[in-house]
Amino acid sequence: MDRETILKKLHAQINVNGHIIGASVGSGMTARYVAMGGADLLLALSAGRYRIMGRSSYTSYLCYGNNNDTVMEMGRKELFPIIKDVPILFGLMASDPSIHIYEYLKEIRDNGFSGIVNFPTLALVDGQFREGLEEEGTSYDLEVEAVNLAHHLDLFTVAFVTSLEEAEKMLEAGADVICVHFGMTKGGFLGARNYISLEESRRRTEEIYAYCQDKAPHVIRMIYGGSANTPVEMQYLYNHTACQGFMGGSSFDRIPIERALYNTTRAFKSGGSFKEDDPVMALLNGDWHSGNYIDYIKNYIEDNYNREIQLSDLAILAHVSPSYLSIKFKKEMGISFSEYMVRFRLAKAKKMLEESRVGCREIAERVGYKDYAHFSKIFKKYTGLSPVGWRKAARQAEESAGKMEE
Length: 406
Known about the structure:
The mean pLDDT is 86. Helix 2 packs across helix 4, helix 8 (164-173) runs parallel beside helix 9 (198-215) and helix 14 (311-318) crosses helix 15 (322-333). By secondary structure, the protein is an alpha/beta fold. The chain starts with a helix and ends with a helix. An eight-stranded parallel beta barrel has the order 1-2-3-4-5-6-7-8, surrounded by seven helices. The protein has 19 helices and eight strands. It folds into three domains: 3-252, Alpha-Beta Barrel (TIM Barrel); 257-334, no CATH class; 340-405, Orthogonal Bundle (Arc Repressor Mutant, subunit A), CATH 1.10.10.60.
Protein backbone atom coordinates (compact mmCIF):
# COMPACT_ATOMS: atom_id res chain seq x y z
CA MET A 1 0.00 0.00 0.00
CA ASP A 2 1.59 3.31 -1.09
CA ARG A 3 2.08 6.28 1.20
CA GLU A 4 -0.54 8.53 -0.40
CA THR A 5 -3.24 5.87 -0.15
CA ILE A 6 -2.40 5.20 3.50
CA LEU A 7 -2.61 8.90 4.35
CA LYS A 8 -5.96 9.30 2.60
CA LYS A 9 -7.42 6.33 4.47
CA LEU A 10 -6.08 7.45 7.85
CA HIS A 11 -7.34 11.02 7.48
CA ALA A 12 -10.72 9.67 6.39
CA GLN A 13 -10.85 7.50 9.51
CA ILE A 14 -9.95 10.49 11.69
CA ASN A 15 -12.64 12.61 10.02
CA VAL A 16 -15.31 9.93 10.44
CA ASN A 17 -14.30 8.05 13.62
CA GLY A 18 -12.36 10.77 15.41
CA HIS A 19 -9.19 8.73 15.79
CA ILE A 20 -7.15 5.84 14.38
CA ILE A 21 -5.56 2.74 15.88
CA GLY A 22 -2.11 1.27 15.38
CA ALA A 23 -1.23 -2.13 16.83
CA SER A 24 2.23 -3.52 17.46
CA VAL A 25 2.22 -7.22 16.57
CA GLY A 26 4.62 -10.09 17.11
CA SER A 27 2.91 -12.95 15.31
CA GLY A 28 0.55 -13.77 12.50
CA MET A 29 -2.17 -14.64 14.98
CA THR A 30 -2.16 -11.28 16.76
CA ALA A 31 -1.92 -9.48 13.42
CA ARG A 32 -4.91 -11.36 12.02
CA TYR A 33 -7.25 -10.58 14.90
CA VAL A 34 -6.30 -6.95 15.51
CA ALA A 35 -6.75 -6.39 11.77
CA MET A 36 -10.19 -8.01 11.98
CA GLY A 37 -10.95 -5.76 14.95
CA GLY A 38 -10.32 -2.65 12.87
CA ALA A 39 -6.65 -1.68 13.38
CA ASP A 40 -5.64 0.93 10.82
CA LEU A 41 -1.91 0.24 11.02
CA LEU A 42 0.15 -2.79 12.01
CA LEU A 43 3.60 -2.25 13.47
CA ALA A 44 5.88 -5.26 13.11
CA LEU A 45 8.17 -4.77 16.10
CA SER A 46 10.72 -7.04 17.71
CA ALA A 47 9.10 -6.10 21.03
CA GLY A 48 5.92 -7.81 19.88
CA ARG A 49 7.89 -10.91 19.06
CA TYR A 50 9.48 -10.98 22.50
CA ARG A 51 6.12 -10.47 24.21
CA ILE A 52 4.75 -13.52 22.40
CA MET A 53 7.80 -15.37 23.73
CA GLY A 54 6.80 -14.40 27.29
CA ARG A 55 9.39 -11.68 27.74
CA SER A 56 9.24 -7.95 28.34
CA SER A 57 9.17 -5.46 25.48
CA TYR A 58 12.46 -4.11 26.79
CA THR A 59 14.09 -7.34 25.64
CA SER A 60 14.38 -5.59 22.26
CA TYR A 61 17.17 -3.53 23.79
CA LEU A 62 19.18 -6.57 24.90
CA CYS A 63 21.51 -8.79 22.91
CA TYR A 64 19.13 -11.70 22.36
CA GLY A 65 19.03 -11.35 18.59
CA ASN A 66 19.12 -9.00 15.63
CA ASN A 67 15.97 -6.85 15.73
CA ASN A 68 15.90 -6.14 12.01
CA ASP A 69 16.35 -9.79 11.05
CA THR A 70 13.56 -10.75 13.46
CA VAL A 71 11.12 -8.25 11.94
CA MET A 72 12.02 -9.10 8.36
CA GLU A 73 11.49 -12.81 8.96
CA MET A 74 8.20 -12.20 10.77
CA GLY A 75 6.92 -10.12 7.88
CA ARG A 76 7.85 -12.62 5.22
CA LYS A 77 6.68 -15.78 7.00
CA GLU A 78 3.73 -14.68 9.12
CA LEU A 79 2.33 -11.28 8.24
CA PHE A 80 2.28 -10.88 4.47
CA PRO A 81 0.71 -14.29 3.77
CA ILE A 82 -2.40 -13.41 5.80
CA ILE A 83 -2.64 -9.60 5.99
CA LYS A 84 -3.79 -8.00 2.74
CA ASP A 85 -5.69 -4.79 3.46
CA VAL A 86 -3.85 -3.19 6.40
CA PRO A 87 -0.48 -1.46 5.94
CA ILE A 88 2.38 -3.14 7.79
CA LEU A 89 5.24 -0.98 9.07
CA PHE A 90 8.76 -2.26 9.70
CA GLY A 91 10.16 -1.66 13.20
CA LEU A 92 13.62 -0.46 12.17
CA MET A 93 16.65 -0.41 14.43
CA ALA A 94 18.43 2.33 12.51
CA SER A 95 21.65 1.98 14.49
CA ASP A 96 22.24 -1.60 13.31
CA PRO A 97 25.92 -1.48 12.19
CA SER A 98 25.47 -4.41 9.83
CA ILE A 99 23.20 -2.56 7.37
CA HIS A 100 23.54 0.24 4.84
CA ILE A 101 20.49 2.23 5.82
CA TYR A 102 19.45 3.43 2.32
CA GLU A 103 19.87 0.00 0.72
CA TYR A 104 18.12 -1.66 3.63
CA LEU A 105 15.16 0.70 3.33
CA LYS A 106 14.81 -0.32 -0.31
CA GLU A 107 14.88 -3.96 0.80
CA ILE A 108 12.15 -3.21 3.34
CA ARG A 109 10.03 -1.62 0.61
CA ASP A 110 10.70 -4.40 -1.91
CA ASN A 111 9.67 -7.06 0.60
CA GLY A 112 6.22 -5.52 0.92
CA PHE A 113 6.36 -3.29 4.00
CA SER A 114 4.41 -0.06 3.57
CA GLY A 115 6.66 2.00 5.82
CA ILE A 116 8.84 2.15 8.89
CA VAL A 117 8.73 3.11 12.55
CA ASN A 118 11.86 3.86 14.59
CA PHE A 119 11.93 1.00 17.06
CA PRO A 120 13.85 0.05 19.15
CA THR A 121 14.27 3.79 19.67
CA LEU A 122 17.00 5.56 21.58
CA ALA A 123 14.30 8.00 22.71
CA LEU A 124 13.46 5.55 25.53
CA VAL A 125 17.06 5.44 26.77
CA ASP A 126 18.36 8.18 29.04
CA GLY A 127 21.08 9.05 31.54
CA GLN A 128 24.75 8.19 31.26
CA PHE A 129 24.02 5.13 29.17
CA ARG A 130 22.31 7.33 26.57
CA GLU A 131 25.29 9.69 26.58
CA GLY A 132 27.67 6.78 26.11
CA LEU A 133 25.69 5.41 23.18
CA GLU A 134 25.56 8.84 21.52
CA GLU A 135 29.32 9.25 21.89
CA GLU A 136 29.85 5.81 20.37
CA GLY A 137 27.75 6.79 17.36
CA THR A 138 24.50 5.04 18.25
CA SER A 139 22.27 8.12 18.18
CA TYR A 140 18.68 9.23 17.77
CA ASP A 141 19.86 11.22 14.76
CA LEU A 142 20.34 7.91 12.91
CA GLU A 143 16.64 7.27 13.39
CA VAL A 144 15.86 10.76 12.08
CA GLU A 145 18.03 10.07 9.03
CA ALA A 146 16.23 6.76 8.45
CA VAL A 147 12.83 8.48 8.53
CA ASN A 148 14.09 11.15 6.13
CA LEU A 149 15.42 8.57 3.66
CA ALA A 150 12.25 6.49 3.96
CA HIS A 151 10.19 9.58 3.20
CA HIS A 152 12.18 10.16 0.00
CA LEU A 153 11.57 6.53 -0.94
CA ASP A 154 7.83 7.23 -0.56
CA LEU A 155 7.51 4.95 2.47
CA PHE A 156 4.98 5.82 5.16
CA THR A 157 6.77 6.85 8.38
CA VAL A 158 5.84 6.82 12.05
CA ALA A 159 8.21 8.58 14.45
CA PHE A 160 8.38 7.72 18.13
CA VAL A 161 9.34 10.81 20.13
CA THR A 162 9.59 11.65 23.81
CA SER A 163 10.44 15.37 23.65
CA LEU A 164 9.82 18.54 21.64
CA GLU A 165 13.39 18.45 20.32
CA GLU A 166 12.88 14.94 18.91
CA ALA A 167 9.52 15.94 17.43
CA GLU A 168 11.10 18.95 15.71
CA LYS A 169 13.75 16.74 14.11
CA MET A 170 11.22 14.15 12.94
CA LEU A 171 8.89 16.75 11.46
CA GLU A 172 11.76 18.22 9.50
CA ALA A 173 12.64 14.69 8.31
CA GLY A 174 9.15 14.32 6.87
CA ALA A 175 7.48 11.94 9.35
CA ASP A 176 3.82 11.25 8.59
CA VAL A 177 2.94 10.45 12.21
CA ILE A 178 4.38 11.92 15.40
CA CYS A 179 3.71 9.40 18.16
CA VAL A 180 4.57 10.45 21.71
CA HIS A 181 5.94 7.34 23.40
CA PHE A 182 5.42 7.17 27.17
CA GLY A 183 7.42 4.01 27.79
CA MET A 184 6.33 0.44 28.30
CA THR A 185 2.68 -0.23 29.04
CA LYS A 186 1.37 -0.76 32.56
CA GLY A 187 -0.68 -3.79 33.55
CA GLY A 188 -0.32 -7.56 33.50
CA PHE A 189 2.48 -9.79 34.71
CA LEU A 190 5.19 -8.20 32.57
CA GLY A 191 3.85 -4.65 32.51
CA ALA A 192 5.68 -1.57 33.72
CA ARG A 193 5.44 -0.99 37.49
CA ASN A 194 6.62 2.61 37.24
CA TYR A 195 4.78 4.79 34.76
CA ILE A 196 3.62 8.38 34.48
CA SER A 197 0.02 9.30 35.24
CA LEU A 198 -2.60 10.18 32.65
CA GLU A 199 -2.44 13.80 33.74
CA GLU A 200 1.33 13.87 33.30
CA SER A 201 0.88 12.21 29.89
CA ARG A 202 -1.52 14.98 28.96
CA ARG A 203 0.91 17.69 30.05
CA ARG A 204 3.81 16.16 28.16
CA THR A 205 1.90 16.12 24.90
CA GLU A 206 0.73 19.76 25.05
CA GLU A 207 3.97 21.36 23.89
CA ILE A 208 4.68 18.69 21.27
CA TYR A 209 1.18 18.73 19.79
CA ALA A 210 1.01 22.54 19.78
CA TYR A 211 4.25 22.62 17.79
CA CYS A 212 2.96 19.98 15.36
CA GLN A 213 -0.32 21.84 14.81
CA ASP A 214 1.58 25.07 14.16
CA LYS A 215 4.35 23.76 11.90
CA ALA A 216 2.74 20.73 10.22
CA PRO A 217 -1.03 20.47 10.85
CA HIS A 218 -1.31 17.66 8.28
CA VAL A 219 0.91 15.36 10.39
CA ILE A 220 -1.05 12.80 12.43
CA ARG A 221 -0.64 12.97 16.21
CA MET A 222 -0.71 9.74 18.26
CA ILE A 223 0.19 8.29 21.68
CA TYR A 224 1.88 5.02 22.65
CA GLY A 225 2.27 3.14 25.93
CA GLY A 226 2.59 4.18 29.54
CA SER A 227 -0.56 4.49 31.64
CA ALA A 228 -2.89 4.59 28.62
CA ASN A 229 -3.79 0.93 28.10
CA THR A 230 -7.59 0.91 27.95
CA PRO A 231 -10.24 2.67 25.81
CA VAL A 232 -11.41 4.62 28.87
CA GLU A 233 -7.96 6.07 29.52
CA MET A 234 -7.50 6.93 25.86
CA GLN A 235 -10.89 8.65 25.78
CA TYR A 236 -9.61 10.95 28.52
CA LEU A 237 -6.60 11.84 26.38
CA TYR A 238 -8.74 12.33 23.27
CA ASN A 239 -10.94 14.72 25.26
CA HIS A 240 -8.06 16.70 26.78
CA THR A 241 -5.36 16.72 24.10
CA ALA A 242 -5.03 17.11 20.34
CA CYS A 243 -4.30 13.38 20.03
CA GLN A 244 -5.72 11.70 16.92
CA GLY A 245 -4.89 8.07 17.59
CA PHE A 246 -3.63 5.33 19.85
CA MET A 247 -0.80 2.90 19.23
CA GLY A 248 -0.48 -0.08 21.50
CA GLY A 249 1.48 -3.26 21.85
CA SER A 250 0.79 -4.97 25.15
CA SER A 251 -2.77 -3.64 25.07
CA PHE A 252 -3.45 -5.74 21.96
CA ASP A 253 -1.47 -8.91 22.64
CA ARG A 254 0.23 -9.49 25.99
CA ILE A 255 -2.46 -8.27 28.40
CA PRO A 256 -5.44 -9.90 26.58
CA ILE A 257 -3.46 -13.14 26.20
CA GLU A 258 -2.43 -13.12 29.87
CA ARG A 259 -6.02 -12.62 30.97
CA ALA A 260 -7.49 -15.18 28.59
CA LEU A 261 -4.96 -17.91 29.38
CA TYR A 262 -5.11 -17.29 33.12
CA ASN A 263 -8.93 -17.22 33.22
CA THR A 264 -9.30 -20.29 31.02
CA THR A 265 -6.76 -22.34 32.94
CA ARG A 266 -8.20 -21.34 36.31
CA ALA A 267 -11.71 -22.17 35.10
CA PHE A 268 -10.65 -25.65 34.01
CA LYS A 269 -8.69 -26.24 37.19
CA SER A 270 -11.45 -25.07 39.50
CA GLY A 271 -14.23 -26.88 37.69
CA GLY A 272 -15.61 -23.86 35.91
CA SER A 273 -15.51 -21.19 38.60
CA PHE A 274 -12.96 -19.21 40.54
CA LYS A 275 -12.91 -16.20 42.81
CA GLU A 276 -13.75 -12.90 41.19
CA ASP A 277 -11.53 -11.09 43.70
CA ASP A 278 -8.48 -13.23 42.91
CA PRO A 279 -5.53 -10.85 43.54
CA VAL A 280 -3.78 -12.09 40.41
CA MET A 281 -6.58 -10.44 38.43
CA ALA A 282 -5.59 -7.14 40.01
CA LEU A 283 -2.11 -7.70 38.61
CA LEU A 284 -3.50 -8.49 35.15
CA ASN A 285 -5.75 -5.43 35.26
CA GLY A 286 -2.93 -3.10 36.28
CA ASP A 287 -4.40 -2.48 39.75
CA TRP A 288 -1.63 -4.22 41.66
CA HIS A 289 -0.23 -2.55 44.79
CA SER A 290 1.85 -3.73 47.74
CA GLY A 291 -1.18 -4.89 49.72
CA ASN A 292 -2.01 -7.34 46.96
CA TYR A 293 1.08 -9.38 47.78
CA ILE A 294 -0.41 -10.52 51.07
CA ASP A 295 -3.84 -11.20 49.57
CA TYR A 296 -2.14 -13.14 46.82
CA ILE A 297 -0.26 -15.36 49.31
CA LYS A 298 -3.31 -15.92 51.52
CA ASN A 299 -5.50 -16.84 48.56
CA TYR A 300 -2.86 -19.16 47.20
CA ILE A 301 -2.55 -20.92 50.56
CA GLU A 302 -6.34 -21.23 50.77
CA ASP A 303 -6.40 -23.02 47.42
CA ASN A 304 -3.20 -25.07 47.78
CA TYR A 305 -2.58 -25.75 51.49
CA ASN A 306 -2.61 -29.50 50.81
CA ARG A 307 0.49 -29.15 48.63
CA GLU A 308 4.07 -28.14 49.33
CA ILE A 309 4.29 -24.35 49.22
CA GLN A 310 7.55 -22.45 48.96
CA LEU A 311 7.67 -18.71 49.54
CA SER A 312 10.43 -18.48 46.94
CA ASP A 313 8.04 -19.83 44.28
CA LEU A 314 5.38 -17.28 45.21
CA ALA A 315 7.99 -14.52 45.07
CA ILE A 316 8.86 -15.49 41.50
CA LEU A 317 5.22 -15.30 40.47
CA ALA A 318 4.79 -11.95 42.21
CA HIS A 319 7.98 -10.58 40.57
CA VAL A 320 9.68 -9.68 43.87
CA SER A 321 12.54 -11.17 45.86
CA PRO A 322 11.81 -13.87 48.50
CA SER A 323 13.39 -11.73 51.22
CA TYR A 324 11.20 -8.74 50.33
CA LEU A 325 8.06 -10.88 50.28
CA SER A 326 8.99 -12.49 53.61
CA ILE A 327 9.55 -9.13 55.29
CA LYS A 328 6.39 -7.68 53.76
CA PHE A 329 4.32 -10.63 54.93
CA LYS A 330 5.60 -10.52 58.51
CA LYS A 331 5.14 -6.76 58.72
CA GLU A 332 1.49 -6.89 57.64
CA MET A 333 0.46 -10.18 59.29
CA GLY A 334 2.50 -9.99 62.48
CA ILE A 335 3.82 -13.54 62.02
CA SER A 336 6.19 -15.19 59.59
CA PHE A 337 5.08 -16.97 56.45
CA SER A 338 6.01 -20.40 57.87
CA GLU A 339 4.14 -19.70 61.10
CA TYR A 340 1.06 -18.63 59.16
CA MET A 341 1.25 -21.81 57.09
CA VAL A 342 1.40 -24.01 60.20
CA ARG A 343 -1.52 -22.29 61.87
CA PHE A 344 -3.63 -22.36 58.73
CA ARG A 345 -3.05 -26.07 58.15
CA LEU A 346 -3.70 -26.96 61.77
CA ALA A 347 -6.95 -24.99 61.74
CA LYS A 348 -8.08 -27.04 58.74
CA ALA A 349 -6.94 -30.26 60.43
CA LYS A 350 -8.82 -29.49 63.66
CA LYS A 351 -12.01 -28.84 61.73
CA MET A 352 -11.65 -32.14 59.84
CA LEU A 353 -10.97 -34.03 63.06
CA GLU A 354 -14.11 -32.57 64.60
CA GLU A 355 -16.47 -32.92 61.64
CA SER A 356 -15.39 -36.03 59.72
CA ARG A 357 -14.55 -39.66 60.33
CA VAL A 358 -11.52 -39.61 58.06
CA GLY A 359 -8.44 -41.18 59.60
CA CYS A 360 -5.83 -38.98 61.22
CA ARG A 361 -3.13 -40.00 58.74
CA GLU A 362 -5.32 -39.08 55.80
CA ILE A 363 -6.18 -35.75 57.39
CA ALA A 364 -2.47 -35.05 57.79
CA GLU A 365 -1.99 -35.62 54.06
CA ARG A 366 -5.01 -33.50 53.19
CA VAL A 367 -3.51 -30.50 54.96
CA GLY A 368 -0.08 -30.90 53.41
CA TYR A 369 1.84 -33.14 55.82
CA LYS A 370 3.23 -36.26 54.20
CA ASP A 371 5.00 -37.37 57.41
CA TYR A 372 2.35 -38.23 59.99
CA ALA A 373 4.82 -38.34 62.87
CA HIS A 374 5.90 -34.77 62.08
CA PHE A 375 2.26 -33.67 61.77
CA SER A 376 1.39 -35.25 65.13
CA LYS A 377 4.37 -33.58 66.79
CA ILE A 378 3.46 -30.14 65.39
CA PHE A 379 -0.21 -30.63 66.25
CA LYS A 380 0.56 -31.45 69.87
CA LYS A 381 3.01 -28.56 70.16
CA TYR A 382 0.32 -26.05 69.16
CA THR A 383 -2.78 -27.63 70.76
CA GLY A 384 -1.43 -29.60 73.69
CA LEU A 385 -3.15 -32.73 72.36
CA SER A 386 -2.38 -35.40 69.78
CA PRO A 387 -4.69 -35.55 66.73
CA VAL A 388 -6.40 -38.58 68.24
CA GLY A 389 -6.73 -36.82 71.59
CA TRP A 390 -8.19 -33.73 69.91
CA ARG A 391 -10.81 -35.77 68.10
CA LYS A 392 -11.71 -37.62 71.28
CA ALA A 393 -12.03 -34.39 73.25
CA ALA A 394 -14.17 -32.83 70.51
CA ARG A 395 -16.56 -35.79 70.51
CA GLN A 396 -16.84 -35.77 74.30
CA ALA A 397 -17.64 -32.08 74.23
CA GLU A 398 -20.29 -32.70 71.60
CA GLU A 399 -21.87 -35.50 73.62
CA SER A 400 -21.91 -33.34 76.75
CA ALA A 401 -23.58 -30.53 74.85
CA GLY A 402 -26.21 -32.97 73.57
CA LYS A 403 -26.99 -34.24 77.06
CA MET A 404 -27.37 -30.72 78.36
CA GLU A 405 -29.91 -29.93 75.66
CA GLU A 406 -31.93 -33.04 76.68
